[in-house]
Amino acid sequence: MPNGVLILFQGMPFTQHLIKPVAFFAAENRSFTMNATEPATLKTLAGELGLNVSTVSRIINAEPGTDSKWASPETIRRVHELASARGYTRNPHAASLRTSRSDLIGVIVPRLQDYVLATIYEGIDAAAETRGRMTVVANSLDDPTRQRSRTESLLARRVDGLIFGDAHIDSPFLDQLAARGVPLTLVSRRKAGHVSVTCDDVTGGRLAASHFLSTGRRRFAVIAGARYASTTVDRVAGFLDVLEEHGIGGSDVDVYYTGFDAPAGQRAVAELMAAPVRPEAVFAVNDFAAIGAIGALQKLGVVVPEDIAVVGYNDTPIAEAVSLTTVRSPMVEMGRLGFDKLLLLLDKEVVESERLPPELIVRSTA
Amino acid sequence: MPNGVLILFQGMPFTQHLIKPVAFFAAENRSFTMNATEPATLKTLAGELGLNVSTVSRIINAEPGTDSKWASPETIRRVHELASARGYTRNPHAASLRTSRSDLIGVIVPRLQDYVLATIYEGIDAAAETRGRMTVVANSLDDPTRQRSRTESLLARRVDGLIFGDAHIDSPFLDQLAARGVPLTLVSRRKAGHVSVTCDDVTGGRLAASHFLSTGRRRFAVIAGARYASTTVDRVAGFLDVLEEHGIGGSDVDVYYTGFDAPAGQRAVAELMAAPVRPEAVFAVNDFAAIGAIGALQKLGVVVPEDIAVVGYNDTPIAEAVSLTTVRSPMVEMGRLGFDKLLLLLDKEVVESERLPPELIVRSTA
DNA sequence: ACGTATGCCGCAAACGTATGCCTAATGGTG
DNA sequence: CACCATTAGGCATACGTTTGCGGCATACGT
Prior knowledge:
Chain A is an alpha/beta fold. Chain A has three domains: about 5-90, no CATH class; about 100-200 and about 330-355, Rossmann fold; about 200-330, Rossmann fold. Chain A has helices at about 40-50, 55-60, 75-85, 90-100, 115-130, 145-155, 175-180, 200-215, 230-245, 260-275, 285-300, 315-320, 330-345, and strands at about 5, 20-25, 25, 30, 105-110, 135-140, 160-165, 185, 195-200, 220-225, 255, 280-285, 310-315, 325-330, 355, 360. In chain A, strand 12 (about 280-285), helix 11 (about 285-300) and strand 13 form a beta-alpha-beta unit.
């Protein structure tokens, strides 16, 4: 048998994904013929090295920086060398069982199909990746029953904490969860009594209104989402505030609570064009609703922005593509911060909510 | 102390999420004062019931249908009753450690921001939910390095199998993975040698071409995505096939490999309008690219479809909103089937790839 | 009456890791 | 030389499940 030959294993049973190509050593009368069909564990490493599992465990878990006083530099080198040669990866289930920490974070969003939430989730996941955590995401569809059931199944998987992107401003669900001691943070939507990272949506609504006023519009419609979302409530409130400050209100502004997607925008247009008097400007609390609205308006022969101006919200790529004037919200950043704050919460630190500033992006629809 | 009083615990330490409200029983001289700060385990249940953990385990794991011969009906009732009273949920880490199965499925997609992949993932997750599995998703951004690293970290978490939505038709990565014995299936994109569930993209391309021909167009452009994606390759191939069958080719059709999103559509238009002669019809292999293209065309004063007709692909909601003619692909179904086939694979069954039929949806852009 | 089948359940050993507590040898100090 | 601190590890247990292998009754067949 040749010395130090590299043998590649193929077509191994599926439980052995983690085995990497392994070098056999056949020296003199002594040869290690470790059972290559078994994935490397602390025990197998320790056995080969003539060490105790506890020693190997401590060496492997030591911070790379800290000069651990648990072993000699030589031993540490040998351990790391063999570990990487055998392709050792810690069994997270065993570790979690021992430590009762899973390093898993659950994320619940209304729907990943929604670009906004998908982007926020990317921010969460990016932050998790840098911190060595993994995330598990679930769609609640904003349905209270599903919110509960998906939450319970994530907890049953022993996630360390939860991030909600689907908070309902009027539901006791999150309060009950917090009372049970579940660490959680909120992103995108806020709710009193919980740590949240949101866009400053009141300001966002104000930006839209101010822009319309500065271009001389006087009659308005708002295409709003669901009433239970703080995003809807705050954006509408900010918008109406500014109008009121300029003495506009009452019959000069109509709010349509339809939804956050393109079809919702179409439905809203169908409604508002049926009203006795047309608005001169439409504020949609979501880009997709805005685009749906614009599509419907154009189909009716309405020219945007000459006849009716439109402003959206979030500044998704599609907004840029169709040249939609919109309010930019920091989606990725909300996700990142939402995750970071949850981590602080898990460390028993005190954490405050945060509202990130929006920015008006003027393009050609308003 | 009152009898059978219901006590609600609030503000418990965060490790105890799973404890549900617990009923204390104080009867005569005997009173269970179980340690309410500890989550229920098989041991605590068994202790309270005077049974052995193995018995409780077998009862709890028995299929609800099968009349297990492991315990008397009365005992089974008592176990289930106490389990639900204590809010018992199995510790999945302990179970996985024992069985070396995690019931976790890893999913890797180019990017969840992409509506198409997000929808496919929803199909996967929906299927997983009905089978009692959980999924973990990661973005690869179609970057080979990230594909590998995200795959390895999912494997390190001991997923039972993987579903890829980002297969590169020319990369050996998946082959290497399969050779290591990792069970996997592909969705959206196919690759020779692996089980995949895709849309019949060749047919989809043919549908688009036939439609253009039937409305009298003779000069074409294709906005294609990345060359490494089978979706690009197949859709373009089907499109060109039909043209060739009608004697069209060569300088009468240009293919622009830009990307799958709206900005890619804009870039492609910038290129194709700079060419010496304009196309009469544009086939975009993705709705978002199509919308980006339409936006760019309109900005240049080109009227769609009179000057240039446009057909997209996938039939996303935004297509309906802007009245885009497109080829519908069964996204959710692809996800579902991709998951189901992986489960079959895990059961060592033989599984075949599948191509689902597309459908042309004619609206007003072509 | 005796052997066997069945119903009902317990014993004990893993799975792989983390961690509190020991120990043995070495080096330094007074 | 006696004593103590440091270095370099080992021992043992617990985390919560699952599962092969019994074991003891009672019922049943001959």
